[in-house]
User: Fold this.
Amino acid sequence: MCPNKEILSAFFDGEISNSASKKIEAHVDHCPKCREQIKQWERISSLLQPVRTEMDQEKVNQSWSLLLQRIKEKDEGTQKRAAVKPVPFYQWLAIGGTHNFF
Ligand SMILES: [Zn+2]
Assistant:
């Protein structure tokens, strides 16, 4: 009989006692259905793996403060740019820019 999905996923996550895990392992060895389920989870977790391993805590903190810094710089940049914002085209038309231009 197959272990239910909760037990199987606990086994996959290594959250199950050693002796129980041995039993499930033996079952999975002989059960294509459960093996397929485990394989599916392995595929999913292997997709997630590079993200998990790259993001050790220090790097996360670093990139987080870097991100905050960038956001701050961007904000300041936007404010600066806003201060020297060129006159919008329609306003330029209204103040007679076209006359000088043509
Ligand atoms: Zn099974």
